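Researcher: Quick sanity check before group meeting.
Model: Go ahead. Protein one:
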Amino acid sequence: MYGDHRPKTILLTCLGDDNQFHLTGAAHILNTVASFGSSGGLGEAAAWLCLREDIHVSLVSQKPLRTNLESFHHSDIFLRNDDFAWAARMVFLLAKVLGCAFNQVSSPEFTALQNIAQEVEDWNTRKPPSFHPLRVLPRGKDVSRRFPEVWMLLPVHVVGVQYYHIAKIVLAFSCSPSPSLAYESFKNSRNIEKTIRHHLFMVLGLAKSNPKAENTLFTARHSLVAWGWVIRHRLDQEAAEILLREMWTRTGWDVTASIQSLREQWADEEDTDS
């Protein structure tokens, strides 16, 4: 009925610069036409692309998604068993996590978050063998080895596993009940920070280890902007800056502001600890 014009418009909008106004307009169109997320063809491809962009903005801003996830419920990715469908399901699960964790209307419901957390872990347990790393090398002491090396078969596998680790970060922040005792609260916060740092290093390591999955560098950058403050060791901080500069070289994305923001976060943490 609408021809190809609206899906192409959405696709071009989402491929533009990182402008939240553009994304707001695209999300409004997607939410108006409820079938886009499950219509197949270019329309559905554009919907998934915009959802990923919406996820990136939500991660950095710590604000709710603009996209209505209901439009994706009838997509055939929930019925198919190929690797692209499995990766898309993880994208959708992360969107559900963000929608619940960053809900500004009401505080996150602990039971709902636990249920989504179980869905995320079920994905990880049941994912096809093709999503298992070809090779994993643990972190080393040298600045060039501060993030684990995780070699994956194809970019689609990198995306799925990277989004899994991001979901675990958000859930670590959101799913922890607040202990009443001060010491228990402090100990719990340290454990949460350690968990977040582990998954953040996996996000960064996946991006660094798989150069063909160039889009994962942007996800790594967004994750650093959101949670880079948990990186406390100086060599880890240097490695993060090196990764961002490599991203600049490979993609042309200016990371000067990101590096400056990280340095300010790290300086604030040093002042707090001293």
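Researcher: Fine. The other one?
Model: Protein two, sequence then structure:
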Amino acid sequence: MCNLRDVVIFLAGAAFLHTISHIVLPYFITMPLDMGFMVLTTQFNFWVIGISAIITIALLWWACKLNKK
């Protein structure tokens, strides 16, 4: 039905979508973005993009190490 590898690949896809959304975000809104509980600045957005990309790569690497069944 659904094994760990499938779940990890799904999470990698979600992390990739999160990375892409932060890459295109500055094209549609003006920075800094005040969300009430935090302010998203351009520099903080770059950090979010980098960390999300690292998480995506780590999840894909982990999925490659898991057995196909």
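Researcher: One line on it for the slide.
Model: The mean pLDDT is 96.
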